[in-house]
Amino acid sequence: MAHDLGRYALHGLLTKTAFNPAKIDRLIMGTVIQESKTSNIARESALGAGIPNSVPANTVTMACISSNLAISSGIDLIKSGAAEVVVAAGTETMSDVPIRFSRKVRARMLASQKVKSAAGYLKLLKGLSLKDLAPELPAIAEFSTGEVMGRSADRLAAAWGVSRKEQDEFAVLSHLRAFEAHKKGLYKDEVVPALVPPHFVPIADENGIRGDTSKEKMATLKPAFIKPHGTVTAANASFLTDGASATLLMSEKKALEFGYKPKAYLLDYIYVAQDPKDELLLGPAYATARLLEKTGLTLKDISVFEFHEAFAAQLLSVLNALESEKFCKEKAKISSTIGRVPIDKLNTLGGSLSLGHPFGATGCRLITTTANRLLREQGEYGLVSACAAGGLAVAMLVKRYPQ
Fold it and tell me: Where in the sequence numbering do the catalytic residues fall?
């Protein structure tokens, strides 16, 4: 379950950093699909990881950018003086999601607690149809529009001129980059093995990476959402997976007091919201444009880009938008065009298309990878951005700590 993955991530972070958990002032964890038994999953994960019960823990949710929200909430606490040390994390289990019965069945289940005879139980069945007995799976459609995200991505690709060929090429690139990164051990410092029941064999490698994929293989897949002429397929869309992530946050002064050398600063961030119908997935273009204008930086100043790959169609549409003068000036309301994000600096270790997308955990992964890439590549600034359900998005600016 998600609290177990959260526990693994927290324990891994504390083991790696050798940080005394009693010194944590607050733990904040992001998640999306909540299990009622662990509604405050941050608390349950913290206790399971051996963090003292005196450490307050709370759960936040903001769709696919929930752990970004955990990070920014932690930063706000530190900046305000309300906390000195915060652990920000995220967790999600997509392989075992809570499944409900229909409203009629749920009502009868609640009523059954007061039944005292066999006849009473039989009476509860009256009025139920076979349809009522069918389970209700968690919706992957937008609540406000009823449209599934993949269909929205398909429409976005059409609007921004992103072809099926371009999407497949980018998806292949993501998989090949992720395969090479793992082969070279570039993720070794970021990944903690998970023990999965019933045999509890440690799993230390991502299981969705396709190092043998190709454009030819991608081209054989049929459209998944708009049939038969759509361009989004199961292969050029991110897949749902289980995962958790965790980060350790504190001020530079506090880190040095503890004897740590920080990896990076989180300099600034911005959240945006757009029309959830026609611009559901375009948020990273708005957030990136406005954050760069706010900080006075340009694409040339950024050494590392880590963008969430919800769909190849979505990410490539965002890149096209940032290159559009009309979008930047009329929609994003900034003074100049951003330009084209260089592909050789973007998601060079793969991304959500190849690594998977555990909703609540992706944000912390993006930040962690950005910090580690800045150190390894000796860059100065890194930019993280991600879209989320509801037409939401975030952009975060990271700066490498002077070594």
Answer: 64, 387
